[in-house]
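for the writeup, i need someone to sanity check this before i put it in the appendix. the sequnce is what the collaborator sent (i think, or maybe the updated version? ugh). structure was predicted straight from it, no edits. if anything looks off just tell me and ill rerun, i have time this weekend
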Amino acid sequence: MVILGSTGSIGVNTLKVAKRFDLGVETLVAGKNIKLLNEQIKEFHPKIVCIADKKQISEVKHKKVLYGSDGILEAIEQSKSDLVVNALVGFAGLSPSVLTQKLGKRLALANKESLVVAGNLLQTSKIIPIDSEHFGLWYLLQNKPISSMTITASGGAFRDTPLEKLSKMSSAEALNHPNWKMGRKITIDSATMTNKVFELLEARWLYDCEKVDALIETKSIIHAMINFKDGSTTAHIANADMKLPISFALMGKVQEEILPHVDLVEVGNLQFKEIRQERYPIWEIREDILKNPQRGVVLNAANEISVERFLNNEINILEVAKINKKAYKKFSDILPKNLDDIFEIDKEVRKFCS
């Protein structure tokens, strides 16, 4: 397989699954964590390696090292593997997703931005999602009429913070997720609930369902629910560990235990909460963006800039959503028809939000 983002949390877990099931790894694409990449090279012996910065090539213990965004595309083209795991972060993951499908390779997708900004341009029926919520929905799907789909949210770092204190919370506090450790950007997106707006868009594209919603489940053991037209609801319950969806994405089916079962007696009780706009202002645009999914490119570009500004302590957590909503309303008439349109809109929105 080809792993894009091998030193991130999804990439590391993918390699754990590959090792357990003796799956071949042909190509590793990493960022700037060269120390970890070198450890991965030593263990998995990839034929091709790609990193972010040309200046670090000499540090990589491999004879064939590509670099940069063009290097990622070259690595995909040169690889003989028919499976690409895209675990890159942000808009940078879009071109690799498009190329993977253009080459007829299988796309196991953890880069949610690909679907958020260009769901209409990807062959969504051929995408294997690596995400607890979308894996949960896939796992629950039956040949029965569906009324709606529901995914769950943890609520992020500020789930229980008094509302009057939100504007004073630091970026360091926002990175303190209540349930697990993730990358910086996705942890901030969890705190603002932008991540869940993205996931609703993903579900809409992946499963062609416009009736998708989300709620907070504080212990993160229920990941998704499907409401059927007969009035019944099924829920996907599993311990929060990405190795489960990754195993299915890599192998198609799994016939042995990946995770221990959830002990419901030990869990004791579950708590559900409504996602409210006063705590998560971005939730205001949820219904509109599901009706106008092509505007996902606007929200994503604005969010990448506003999150960066928040992490640099230029704005507070509530201003992240303020900037995102301002851009969303400013670019309300966009209708991208191709990749060139998407890249142009992305550039204009970033300029506006900077």
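The chain has 15 helices and twelve strands. The longest strand covers residues 146-153.
thx in advance!!
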